[in-house]
Amino acid sequence: MTCTAPPTAAGTTDDSFAPTATRPSAPARTADAWRLSLQCGPPAPATARREARRVMHAWGADEETVDDALLVVSELVTNAVQYAEPPVAVSLCFFDDRAILVAVTDGGPRPEDQHDDDRPADEHGRGTFIVDAVAVGAGDVTGRDGRINHWAVIGPSAL
User: Three-state DSSP class for 133?
Assistant: First the structure.
């Protein structure tokens, strides 16, 4: 698997966005890619973090980048499990300039009355702010099939 940079405009409809490497009008960069399908349930964020950590360490990513990427993985997977329809998958792309693209794909929004969030209102709703604080870029891409790719770039440079 290879990687392409995500579209720059949030909300862009593009069924081809997925970890697959070259970006038009930019020099090609080498990339390693990884993808994991998750069971849609409470253990999903922990499973995604554990496996993503293992993969990023194998790639030789620095610890600060790994920590930031794991925070993003946790927030995006948690949101997918709580607010979206299955299937849920997490993907990582590690670029030669040390940037990591984190993408979480879900089946699209779940009806409002089916959300799996029993926490008080003051204990949720910060995920987007957290992702924006540690990422150099983030957004969403909705496919024609209704699946949504939530992405964020972690590392020293934007894609």
Answer: helix
